[in-house]
Specification:
This protein has two domains: 8-72, 2-Layer Sandwich (Alpha-Beta Plaits); 80-92 and 150-290, Rossmann fold (3-Layer(aba) Sandwich). It is built from twelve helices and eleven strands. The chain has helices at residues 18-27, 47-57, 94-101, 105-116, 122-131, 139-145, 154-163, 176-186, 218-231, 249-254, 265-270, 281-285; strands at residues 8-13, 32-36, 39-45, 65-70, 80-83, 167-175, 190-199, 202-208, 239-243, 257-261, 273-275. The protein has a seven-stranded mixed beta sheet with strand order 8-7-6-5-9-10-11. Helix 3 runs antiparallel to helix 4, helix 3 (94-101) crosses helix 6 and helix 4 runs antiparallel to helix 5 (122-131).
Amino acid sequence: MTTACSLRDLVISGLITDDLCAALSSLAAEARLLREENRLRLCAIDENTCETIRRDVLPNLTERDAALVPAGLSLKNFRCAFFDMDSTLIGNECIDELAALHNVKEQVALITERSMRGELDFEHSLRERVKLLAGAPASIIDDAAALIRPTPGAKETLALFHAFGVKTYIASGGFTQFAEIVARDYGMSGFVCNRLVIEDGRLTGEATGPAGGKVLDRAGKRRTMEVIAQLNGASLSQCIAGGDGANDLEMIGAAGFGFAYHAKPIVAQAAPYKISVGTFSVAGDWFIESWT
């Protein structure tokens, strides 16, 4: 017997053709098919049909994002959402922008990439990168902030979350000097990040963690989610988490609904759900509220 909890919705974001709709309808004749411009939702599919879709349909869906999410996945079942900032909520890696302004871009970018792929310990790599910024005028923070590019679809998706009572937070190994700008612009409830140390109007080449403590790493992100969820009277199963780097893996894995966004291979392979093609708005497509 198929139970409600074992049913899935197939959500496809991208080019939707008549042929695709016909093929899916033939596989799941009793399932309700919702079709809008550039997205489709096939509702309440049983596990046998899901297996057929995984085997015969998903491998052929090029240039589209597809996910088999719990049937009727609803934001009403979540209380909090946590997101990485750099290359997730914004299109920049802020430390790389600072490095470019201080003429150490290549050296910093090499360390950043190795860290995001999980080849280097995050705290060590962060300190090595920040050290290269020593002596830079503090004004380059404002210069870098002016270069922030919002991720397409992120602000709209977070607005959807907010409309249904989900509080959103930044949990980032990046810096509070940028996170406070992004959080304010997106209407988020808060942020927990590292901080660049400034003395006498210049960067010292050092960074501290939240409240001056340990640098926020992957374990710190998960702990941040646990603490803030508890403060909101929520369990981890009532949390959403998304990010792109190895530093996000524990947070993504511990959340009730975790996803990777245009992520490094190690993260895309481990995350339960992923966006590889489309904008951040795909994350909104997964939830039934965006269809009603």
